[in-house]
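To illustrate the input format used throughout this study, we show a single complete record. The first block contains the structure-token representation of the backbone; no residue identities are included at this stage. The design step must infer an amino acid for every position from geometry alone.
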């Protein structure tokens, strides 16, 4: 994997990929991987809910759906950061908690990462989001916040006292994609969050 196409990048994500040996390309047909980036919430209509607590840009959703369909056509693996990960989660058949507490803190928390061999590790990652992924039936949660931070979660049915894990990383084998809710581009290349991001790309998408 050498070439990356970064969707709607504000420079930081492209610079992160470049610092890790990738060439950023502006032609998707040359890409070995496509990265969707952070931003507005995915419109809840895409996962069958009314909008009760989202900050959306449906024009961006439509634009990125076109890119996703091109990736499927060309069999290009996809990775998403923050909103980008949430977008891929929804496109893979998942839903979102439209609002959660204790994650939009501009700080860090531990993420417990598990693999298919039963190995686990805790990595310190960023926490700057107010929504959270609810993985679909064909996807697998491989990273959760530790300790669990949310005390409530909101969707179109109401607000609930939290009784589920705080999902941070999900793989979607059926669409060849990885959702990574933290922001690895906030860190230097030797930071454990950024190292984890690229390690998971190599493991699940290469």
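Output of the design step:
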């Amino acid at each position: 994997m050498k070439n990356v196409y970064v969707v709607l990048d504000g420079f930081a994500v492209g610079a992160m990929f470049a610092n890790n040996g990738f060439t950023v390309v502006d032609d998707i047909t040359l890409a070995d991987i496509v990265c969707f980036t952070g931003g507005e919430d995915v419109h809840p209509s895409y996962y069958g809910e009314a909008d009760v607590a989202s900050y959306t840009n449906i024009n961006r959703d439509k634009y990125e759906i076109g890119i996703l369909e091109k990736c499927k056509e060309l069999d290009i693996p996809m990775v998403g950061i923050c909103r980008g990960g949430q977008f891929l989660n929804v496109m893979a058949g998942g839903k979102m908690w439209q609002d959660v507490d204790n994650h939009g803190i501009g700080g860090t928390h531990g993420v417990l990462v598990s693999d298919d061999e039963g190995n686990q590790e805790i990595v310190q990652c960023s926490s700057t989001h107010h929504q959270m992924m609810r993985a679909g039936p064909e996807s697998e949660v491989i990273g959760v916040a530790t300790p669990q931070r949310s005390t409530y979660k909101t969707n179109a049915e109401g607000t609930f006292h939290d009784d589920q894990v705080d999902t941070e990383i999900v793989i979607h084998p059926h669409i060849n994609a990885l959702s990574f809710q933290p922001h690895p581009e906030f860190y230097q290349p030797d930071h454990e969050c950024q190292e984890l991001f690229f390690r998971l790309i190599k493991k699940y998408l290469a």
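Structural context for interpreting the output: The chain has four helices and 14 strands. The longest strand covers residues 104-114.
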